Amino acid sequence: MSDNNAYASLLAHLKKTNALSQAAGVISWDQETMMPKNGAPARAEQMAALASIVHERNCDPKIAEWCAAIDQSDLDLVGKANLREAKRTHQRATRIPARLAEEIARATALGQGIWAKARAAENVDDFLPTLEEILKLRREEASVLSEAGDDLYDALLDDYEPEMKTAPLAELLGRLRPHLTSLREKITDSGKEIKPLKGDFNDSAQMEMARRLASVFNYDWDSGRVDKAVHPFSSGYRSDSRITTRVVLDHVFDCMYSTVHEVGHANYEAGRDPKMDLMPAGGYASMGIHESQSRMLENQIGRSHPFMDWLYPQMLEVFGDIGVSSPDELFAVVNEVTPGYIRTEADEVHYNLHVMMRFDLELAMIRGDLQVGDLEGAWNERYLADFGRAVDKPSNGVLQDVHWSCGLFGYFPTYSLGNIFAGEIFATMSGAISDLDGKISSGNLDEISTWLNREVHQHGHVYSAQDLMQKICGKAPDELALAKYLDAKFGGMYGI
Hints:
Layout: H1 4-33, H2 40-58, H3 61-69, H4 77-93, H5 98-121, H6 128-145, H7 152-157, H8 166-190, H9 203-216, E1 224-228, E2 234-237, E3 240-245, H10 252-270, H11 287-301, H12 305-319, H13 327-334, H14 348-367, H15 375-387, H16 413-432, H17 436-442, H18 446-455, H19 465-473, H20 480-494
Parallel strand pairs: 1-3
Antiparallel strand pairs: 2-3
Helix pairs in contact: 1-2, 1-3, 2-5, 5-6, 8-14, 8-20, 9-10, 9-12, 10-11, 11-16, 12-13, 12-17, 14-15, 14-16, 16-20
């Protein structure tokens, strides 16, 4: 029989800890969007102080006492998830010295600003000492978290994709890679040229289009906002969503589809059962599941042929003449396959090649097989091999992503997992919603939002990612649904 007071005490403790973590998220959002440039040193200390408090609470020995006093058989699914995650977080936290948790928070808060300045100056050397320090701290963290015989990378991957290990992940991505390179070669050999987009894509017009896209994908404006940042991201929680996008004057789709992508994240956060607010069960199943919600909205829906029927007149209204004369032509432009530099702008064929390159490079750095001083050369060499062109400047190369400055080693492969999960979920949803193409064509995405909320969002972290995918799709996820979707879409578009 459980000690009811123990569960109540545990839950109260966990909720307060999660509230503090959310506060850290809000000031991190402020750092990227509103904070004066000279505020970075003070913000780093604020982030370090909050990280220290959260770490101390996660290490509290009372957590182990409460967990031991609770009989799991007395709990419902939500209670069991809370207990499971409380034990997992406590076990990991107690292995990490408070000093290390504080140093990581401070270094990554400073690192984001240093990365942004180095990126603007196109000077990799300005960032490398900071990256060296962050990498050292994360390797130290991985070493104290790792079990005997584990890959160091496993411990970092576990932050974002619990239950996933490096070896099966590398195998899964390895199976997908030759399919992508083969498809890319067929597209290149087709010789088909795509008519370019032309027009006046000024800042205010792009942001207006971003707001329209957020609205059609059912973004809750009473609980959210959209701002601009160097790198698009989503933060916040169920009723306080903060997403950002960026405006690049000669790449209008960057703003548009970055917005759709971040709305996918925000909708997942907003769709959790409010009864689980601040509970571990109310978190996300994994970053792969999180990314599946973004990538599916962005690609399977937002870049689909039916969606062009809604998007084309909207773009004409906002931008005027855009140089294409029909939804069919817009579909081709939106989905053009070309080896671009920027991951967030990449077409669906090249996107996972971007991710796999980053995965391999950061895995080599964590293992000690690649030194930070050699990173730019390794990046440029791999990019040339995979994409057939040379990197022209650091902001189009090793400095383009914010993740390493934030210490997010282990995060990149979840983008490809998200694509794989999205392929499975979209195939299942297509069989569950009648006239799906017609609904997408009209811009009426309510039934899609309802289905995703019921099948994915509301469950939070009650289920693991693998169990949730099994529940939704009736099978363990693999790369086949994504590969079939890509073959059908681009095979038809390029006549291959």
